What does this fold into?
Amino acid sequence: MIPLKDTPKTRIFPYVNISLILFNIFVFAFQLMLTERGLMLFAHTYGLVPIQVDASLAGLMPFITYQFLHGGWLHIGSNMLYLWVFGDNIEDRLGHVKYLVFYLLAGTLAGLAQVLADPASQTPIIGASGAVAGVLGAYLISCPRARVIALVPIFFLFTIAEVPAIIFLGLWFVLQVFSGVASIGMNITVAWWAHIGGFIAGLALVGLFGKRIKCQ
It folds into this structure.
């Protein structure tokens, strides 16, 4: 299913959410200007390489910077679409500053989950997926009665339908868990455990960060 919009209204303008989207796009545009060798160096410098993780500042910074790199148009397009649809409601609940801290922390914990799942990997982890997964987990807690207007596949066709958020996000999470378990011991390029870890982090953290209000 592809989300198009959701039903809850927001009380504040989502400056931070829009800024995150724009910054991700800016970094991706910069990546497009790099040579293949330059892009590889960029990914290994600012991506999260599990085998290089240590307790130094240099070893910890990639837990933040990896969240703003992407591997292609589909990668950034899907992440930014999900962030656009779901992120404004979480910023509305938490407020601007707390939302930014929540987003980066969820992405950091998501990266840690992937590192723990495959600590010897030399492949850079990149993408906003883990942080966005944190937003989805927070959304499930904050907007349990919301409905998501989405493109829903029916055989070879797509139709637009309103799907309860709890079903939409529940199916999304089940798919991540299934894919993560299936990837154990295999050379998979998708960081499924970052998605799982980010979602669980969002579930756990949102109540600690913000006002206990529900989406309208």
Summary: The domain at 9-145+166-209 is CATH 1.20.1540.10 (Rhomboid-like fold). The mean pLDDT is 90.
